[in-house]
Amino acid sequence: MRFGLSEEQVLLTDNINRFLSDQVDLQQVRTYADGGDDAQVWQGLAELGVSALLVPEDHGGIGLTPLDAALVAESLGYHVTPGPYLASAVMVPTILAEAAADYAQPLAQLAAGELRVGIAFSEALGARADGGISVVDGVINGKSLFAFDDAADAYLVADASQQIYWVDAGDVQTEKLTTVDKSRRVVALAYDNTPAKPVSDNAEVFAKAVDIGRVILAADTLGAAQAMLDQAVAYAKQRQQFNRPIASFQAVKHMCAEMAAELEPCRAMVWFAAHALAELPDEARVTACHTKAHVAEVGKFVAKTATEVHGGMGFTDLLGLHYWFKRIGANRQWLGSPELIREQAARLQGLGQ
Fold first, then answer.
1. pTM score, two decimals?
2. Is position 64 within any domain?
3. Cβ(113)–Cβ(153) below 8 Å
4. Domain's final residue, options 112, 136, 169
5. How many C-beta neighbours within 10 Å does residue 312 have?
6. Domain range for residue 29?
């Protein structure tokens, strides 16, 4: 069987990459990291249809597949693009589509890029000593840590039982959290008798959102790692020692070849995981777990090795390689570390308790 991209998917990625190459250079990323905003970049992506990818057509969206969303994520990772893509364009539409009758207007606003909705799922994925929430009679109290998107208009919040609630951003106190990744921001949400509208009490809806979120993070890591590999190869070709490019040294050749050999199979793995979400539901969850875990490990290896190829320059802000390095590191932890999700995959396969 031949598994490849359609002409439409190739055109989609070409258009996204062209826009990102023109609009999201390293200086733009530095500006965001220093406290700037991502509104202009996100508006441009919304005009290209990125915000509408997974919104059903009858709610103003394009109604494409998780594979299309993964291809866009790979491009965003390659250009280390700031923005609320994971939450507003992927996980939130996946959830709201299950309750479309009640959320028709927000879905249409998401598709148009007029609304940003964040995700606060950390309390459902792994409890923390300084976090924890409780919801009683439509009122939420407590604190959610590491919620995606500091500029969201609202948040979908999940509690320990994996029930999901809609909370308006204006009703909560937000605190920006410092993480290693400066290309995206997360916040802590503090609730004090805050109104919380039930969205879903079905744990399967929560699980599907996490599944697609993990595949998208794997795709983002794939793109970021590919960018680091490409930069390492380009640097090795122009950097000279002993009057010859370091790319001609056998040790450097082996480093670049090993990165390419480790990374290339990940592309097929990510594509298949995204395909399985829509076409192979019985395999989708285990595949999503294995894919994110494996790509996280490969991404870590590529990030380390590409930095070594650059030598001391790899650690400087002049090249900015650290933005990709740290993004890969953050993706490794979001929605579950490799250790946590491998344990989940083992349970799903009947290999653990």
1. 0.95
2. yes
3. no
4. 112
5. 7
6. 7-112
